[in-house]
Design goal:
The protein has helices spanning 13-17, 47-51, 74-79, 85-95, 119-122, 138-147, 158-168, 188-202, 247-253, 284-287, 293-296, 305-314, 325-331, 344-352, 356-363, 370-375, 379-390, and strands spanning 23-27, 33-37, 65-71, 99-105, 111-116, 152-156, 175-180, 205-211, 222-228, 236-242, 276-280, 298-302, 318-322. The chain is an alpha+beta fold. α7 links the parallel β6 and β7. The radius of gyration is 21 Å and the shape is globular.
């Protein structure tokens, strides 16, 4: 193994660079992707070690500008997570005939790094997706776009951005790397199991799924899916609900689904990989009491001169307020180590044993959880209750 399986982030850069195709991706009993080396094919060339983002991290030091921001275009803000910064950045690149790479579900609801060169394709890249994104074959495609002179925006986790940089082995002025503040990723199989559970329980076929759904009266993490109740009629329906009613989303928010490496992520630090870092501004109410963070507010940090220059080029499309880095740092995950929940071991063992229905009944009985009723309270009651608790 390149690194201990507990440290592997499954970025797949080693798979994409091995000259002997000696490295493949396998799934462990919990459904997490791991890399495996075929010792008979391996010639010990060391290329895989040179590109591994865990063995060879690359980080930028210092900050140029940071603060809060959200899109002036309400369509972009409500189509994207947080304040819609990714949408604003991506629109700028597409407007200038560039290409954007980000995470999108394919027709089988498998999450893959996907290329967009127009606005219709770009829509699939909006919103957060809380599972590992498959980069298979993409780094070569990104390099081809860069060599051809196209402006490229790649938005992903810090580890995958670092993997791309190691793959490229040189700086490209026409590459803009945007990272989101990552709290860890879960496995595709756990998500698939959750989809199958809902389909079997409701006797439906889910065609599309989205996290972080925004709509009026939404109080926190909502999701949606489009489904067919009867495939013969071809009539597609929309379902929306709070995160606790979808097992995988509930598991993610309770910090159960993440890969082992995510809890001790080497990239959850002040020094960042991307030219620009974006994420939720969780504590915005502390600094701007009148603002509705659920409607969309992002934090941002420009980590390089390139990132700062690009941010300045789109600033007219944003509402921006600068904050000191210490404010931003206290707002999100920049501190490395996180202790996994104690119940995670039991959760994973049930997953490994194929006891998914029992797992849902044990850990995700949302109707017994006070949070389910809190999130369904009218906003005025939640606000009053939070004020009383702070006194």
């Amino acid at each position: 193994m390149l690194v201990d399986k507990e440290k592997c982030c499954a970025c797949r850069v080693c798979v994409q660079t091995c000259p002997k195709q000696a490295i493949s991706v396998i799934f462990d009993k919990y459904g997490f992707e791991r890399v495996s080396i075929n010792e008979e094919k391996c010639v010990k060339c060391g290329i895989c070690e040179s590109v591994c983002p865990i063995i060879n991290p690359k980080k930028n030091e210092g900050k140029r500008q940071c603060g809060s921001a959200y899109s002036k275009d309400q369509r972009i803000k409500y189509s994207c997570s947080s304040g819609g910064l990714f949408g604003v950045f991506a629109k700028k690149i597409i407007d200038e005939n560039g290409v954007v790479y980000g995470a999108a579900f394919d027709e089988n609801l498998h999450l893959k790094t996907t290329r967009a060169e127009n606005f219709e394709q770009l829509k699939r890249l909006y919103k957060s997706k809380y599972l590992l994104c498959d980069t298979t074959g993409v780094f070569r495609q990104i390099k081809s776009d860069l060599v051809s002179g196209k402006n490229v925006l790649y938005c992903s986790t810090p580890c995958q951005l670092n993997a791309l940089k190691n793959y490229l082995q040189k700086e490209y002025e026409n590459l803009l790397c945007v990272e989101f503040v990552c709290h860890g990723v879960g496995g595709q199989k756990q998500f698939d199991d959750s989809i199958s559970y809902v389909e079997q329980k409701k006797k439906i076929k889910i065609m599309d799924f989205g996290f972080r759904e925004k709509f009026s009266k939404a109080s926190s993490h909502y999701y949606y899916y489009y489904y067919y109740k009867d495939l013969r009629t071809g009539k597609e329906k929309l379902h929306r609900d709070i995160y606790m009613t979808f097992p995988y989303y509930f598991a993610y928010c309770d910090r159960l689904t993440c890969r082992e490496s995510c809890y001790s992520c080497i990239y959850a630090t002040e020094n960042r990989v991307g030219d620009i870092t974006i994420g939720d501004f969780h504590n915005i109410g502390k600094y701007e009491p009148g603002i509705d963070r659920f409607a969309g507010v992002s934090m941002f940090a420009c980590n390089t001169d390139k990132g700062q220059k690009f941010f300045e080029s789109v600033k007219d499309n944003l509402f921006v307020k600068e904050y000191d880095w210490l404010v931003i740092k206290s707002n999100n995950r920049f501190d490395g180590i996180e202790e996994p929940p104690k119940k995670r071991d039991r959760y994973l063992e049930m997953i490994a044993a194929g006891e998914y229905i029992q797992c849902v009944q044990t850990f995700f009985a949302y109707w017994k959880d006070w949070r389910f009723y809190y999130y369904h309270m009218p906003k005025v009651l939640r606000t009053l209750g939070n004020k009383l608790l702070r006194k």
